[in-house]
Design brief:
heterodimer; A: 152 residues; mainly alpha; globular; B: 185 residues; 2 domains; two-stranded antiparallel ribbon; 63% helix; 5% strand
Chain lengths: 152, 185
């Protein structure tokens, strides 16, 4: 968007760099290491997700007390909570099967490409196919629902 | 300092690569998230990129709703990829070393123009089929390891905590079954 601050994208890029470097450093970008954790052969991996959650949690808690709004967007610092419904369980379970089979999740897949793992393009292709299939199916069922409502 | 040999052995069994590379990596992942949040107020997750990028090629409303964020999500993902490359050019290549970084023995290393790159041994069909399910599941479930796991847990969101427990439990079960069936790597 043209009305965004000129530093908006550079900051997002630098944040992505640090994020991706961390995924490489932690070896979470290596499917073998994720699978070793899921098979209880190396229990270090939770330190990545919960370490990151603690750092972001501190920022999420402190920033609203320091400033009202973010400097580059003017958006308020607020919790953006996703509503809970059955889809969180269904989607979480489907994601869990995929993660347990492949050992890779979206952010780690991008970083994995960066550390040289060209084979991960199979996983990235699969993720796009899956996201497209889900969006296609969701759009169709919404169109059908509104058609039924319209007929009534 | 723990000096009990039984405890030390237990720690070596559970954490054969130590914990520092995991903890330091996690702090950096959190720091990247915080940098973006401080400047923009956006708690950025990685998986919406899949849908927002599809909006460049599909007119479906499901993807078009992300037109406003698709450019910066592309920039975020480009940063993540290049961050991985920066790690490869430094620690993975042995150019920089630290007692906090344990190299590990998984996969295959290969050299391109003096940079040590890494490739997985996990079979392509596992990556592809798993990727399809990750693509479907993160979109139905409203988040992935970063959106729910880092941003959501960091916000103490009950929805995200339930999401994390669900995908972690199912992933452990799946990986154990796949390994028990003799599929490796």
């Amino acid at each position: 968007m043209s009305d965004r601050h000129p530093l908006f994208k550079p900051l997002v890029f630098v944040g992505g760099l640090v994020f991706g470097f961390g995924l490489g450093f932690s070896h979470m970008a290596r499917p073998e290491v994720v699978l070793n954790f899921l098979q209880f052969e190396d229990l270090g991996l939770p330190f990545v997700m919960f370490g990151a959650a603690i750092v972001s949690g501190i920022a999420f808690a402190l920033l609203p007390r320091i400033r009202d709004a973010a400097p580059l967007t003017g958006d308020p610092y607020e919790r953006r909570l996703k509503p809970f419904d059955r889809n969180v369980l269904v989607g979480g379970a489907v994601f869990g099967v995929g993660w347990g089979l492949s050992g890779i999740c979206p952010g780690a897949a991008y970083a994995s490409l960066g550390v040289g793992n060209v084979t991960i393009l199979w996983a990235l292709a699969g993720m796009f196919v899956g996201a497209y299939a889900q969006g296609y199916w969701r759009s169709r069922s919404q169109a059908r629902d509104s058609a039924v409502t319209g007929a009534n | 300092m723990v000096t009990d040999p039984v405890l030390l052995q237990a720690a070596a069994d559970l954490f054969p690569n130590g914990i520092s590379r995991y903890a330091v990596g996690g702090l950096l992942v959190g720091l990247g998230t915080v940098l973006i949040y401080v400047g923009t107020g956006i708690p950025a997750g990685a998986s919406t990129f899949l849908e927002s990028t599809l909006s460049y090629v599909s007119d479906r409303s499901r993807f078009q709703q992300y037109v406003g964020s698709r450019d910066w999500r592309l920039v975020f993902t480009a940063g993540i990829i290049l961050g991985g490359l920066a790690f490869a050019a430094t620690f993975q290549s042995g150019l920089v070393t630290s007692s906090l970084y344990e190299p590990g023995t998984t996969g295959q290393l290969y050299d391109v123009a003096g940079v040590t790159l890494w490739m997985t041994d996990v079979q392509p069909w596992r990556l592809f089929v798993g990727g399809v399910l990750v693509g479907i599941g993160t979109r139905i479930g409203k988040g992935c390891t970063s959106g729910h796991g880092v941003c959501g847990v960091g916000s103490a969101s009950k929805t995200s905590l339930v999401g994390v427990v669900t995908f972690l439990t199912v992933a452990i079960g799946t990986a154990q079954v796949v390994a028990a069936l003799g599929v490796s790597p």
